[in-house]
Amino acid sequence: MNWLKNSIYWVLALLGLAVVLGFVRSEQQRMSCQGIEIDIDHNASGNRFVSEEGIRELISDLGYNDSSLLSDIDIQQLENRLNNNPSILKADAYLSIPGKLLVDIDQRKPIIRVFSNDGSSYYIDEEGYLMPLSPAYTSRILVANGAIWAPYGPSSQADLSQPMANDSVMANDLLRDFYKVGMAVQNNPFWQAQINQVFRNDLGDLELIPRVGNHRIIIGTADNLDQKLKKLMIFYEKGLSKTGWNEYSVINLKFHNQVVCTKK
Question: Which of 74, 209, 253, 258 is buried most deeply by CB count within 10 Å?
Fold first, then answer.
């Protein structure tokens, strides 16, 4: 009989909870908004693309303010508008039990900025998507320039974190290489401090330009990038530590299991 008593207890408890939540929701619908709180991941992302003032202005444009009835606030509409912002990765809006409108914003995090020869410039974010520049903030990150023809546009909005599909735009193959380099640099504190530019030369090879050392690092493409960077690290530790950082003008990592250098 204990199982029957327990079952009745839990059914009654759930019914009671449903009644309480229904009452709270009913009361909420008659309440005025008790304030708007906005949480933006500035500390986590390190970026300032989105401001609290800008979010409050958007909320105001939708006709919502501190005196709005909670029943008049369309949460889905607000989230849709926020998530249409190209600098926002994810936006959540919800009403608290005391009647406040709460908005949580996760910003997109760019890892590399691309300068295309058509004059356009944009970011690639860590999710593998292109991201337009913002008039509010400029991210100080790795840059890619040189012989690059990859205009910004809807046709190039592929997921660069995934292998190239048969129907993808040709420029996406190059952008995918930039994405791989950007992620490798971002995820390693040493390379983040050492590499500040990716240059595509007229032969189509990618070159890494370091902050320390007057040399170019040719990697060709981003294929087998981890192995190439491991070779470079070993060469830095065992080679340049003896000869000095300015001994060579070119360090070529294109060839399998080799580091080919050109002296100045």
Answer: 253
